Amino acid sequence: MRLTIARLALLAVSGLALASCQSSPKTTPVASGKSASLLAMEQVAISAHKCWIASKDPAFKAFQMANELNSYSGTPRFLLVPAKHYGGKPLLVVQAQGNSSRVDVFGPLMNEPLGARISADIARWQAGNPSCAAAA
Fold it and tell me: Distance between CA atoms of 19 and 9, rounded to whole angstroms?
């Protein structure tokens, strides 16, 4: 009986040793399901809302933000529209497309004095700095 238990123990240890020599299965990283454009736009949209709208910045008082981040067209974006006319023509469009993290900004506001600030804010937020003001 002792011999049988010893053989079983030896067999079990041998099996474990062989199993540890096997290469681990190749696994592919699990994707978050979000495209590069959506990740970039989420970061920019959160900062834009915090800094322009929620903070009640006087420069953006006349505007509302319309988020369209859950676009099935692969073009997540947000719009600035007149505050008193939510369904009105967008005055600013901030978007990214496909699998690119490049953010495009266009619309009539970019031709106004506020355009330079908008460009600087978007560039800062896209670079990963969520602050509301440029560093002095």
Answer: 15
H or E element that contains 21: helix 2-21
Q: What is the pTM of this model?
A: 0.71
Q: What is the pLDDT of residue 25?
A: 46
User: Hey, which residues does 82 pair with through a beta bridge?
Assistant: 63
CA angle 56, 48, 43 (to 5 degrees): 150
From residue 127, how far is each of 11, 23, 94, 103 by CA, in Å?
58, 40, 15, 11
Is the distance from CB of 58 to CB of 38 less than 8 angstroms? no
- Render pLDDT for 2-33 as a digit per residue (tens, 0 to 9): 556 656 555 555 555 555 555 544 444 444 56
When computed from its CA atoms, the radius of gyration of the chain, rounded to whole angstroms, is 27
